Amino acid sequence: MSFDPLQAWRLDEEPYYAPQAEELAAFEAAHALRLPVLLKGPTGCGKTRFVEHMAWRLNKPLVTVACHDDLSASDLVGRWLLDAQGTRWQDGPLTQAARYGALCYLDEVVEARADTTVVLHPLTDARRILPLTSCNELLHAHPDFQLVVSYNPGYQGMHKTLKPSTRQRFVGLEFSYPGAGQEAAIVAHEGLVDASLARQLVAVAEQTRRLKEHGLTEGASTRMLIHAASLTRHGLSPRVACLQAITCPLSDDPDLATALAAAVDASF
Ligand code: ADP
């Protein structure tokens, strides 16, 4: 059997994903053209799960990098390492994906340091190259390589944002929280709870999302609802589970915390 350097990034099982609209076909079209894809949407609404599902559907390995404000170009591209045999070059995750032909998903790309755009630009236009200046190599991306990035426009202004010269290289797919019925089905499936509890949790989320007009940065995500649902399976009452999984993490502001607790009390 031949060596598969991306074996660790292959998905064995289909990741459960409930489509919101035409995003499966839209992604497949972008993938056919190997166009870089930008996923926009609030945190915890299913972007990562969508990419995992698409990688499985397309039968492609998936290299995921969670970006943070200390992530530099060399974290993505690679670096020289010193070991007992001397120095050796180690490809970073982006280089591995480009070299061997994987989907590379940069989650919350705006968080990464500005120097990362220098390496993304030649990879995301017709050149599809990655200059590895430190080891004197000009890597031509594998034909199967595709870049996918996500970002949350809700944080725009508070944090950094994507420059037009970067974002104009991508095709965009917009995500938001699923409709109530579908979100309840997702919460029931992922949190392993019955449909009626899932619907009540979604009702709490809808109330919290309305508080955005009152200063809340972001309402409860689908992820938070799944956490609350899962806690109830471990013996917490739905109310306590919501306070723990939703109210407490969402805000430190006492007035907003009171409003969030009222949203929970309205459902339970
Ligand atoms: P994001 O990447 O947008 O921050 P995730 O993809 O990690 O969010 O979603 C958080 C969780 O919510 C997932 O782990 C999954 O359990 C669930 N989820 C959200 N949307 C969907 C969906 N459309 N289909 C299936 N699961 C979903």
Automatic annotation (TrEMBL):
Stretches assigned to the CbbQ/NirQ/NorQ C-terminal domain: 183-266
Every ATPase dynein-related AAA domain range: 36-170
Name of the protein: Denitrification regulatory protein NirQ
Similarity remark: Belongs to the CbbQ/NirQ/NorQ/GpvN family.
Keywords: ATP-binding, Nucleotide-binding
InterPro entries cross-referenced by the UniProt entry: ATPase_dyneun-rel_AAA, CbbQ/NirQ/NorQ/GpvN, CbbQ_C, P-loop_NTPase
Native organism: Rhodoferax lithotrophicus
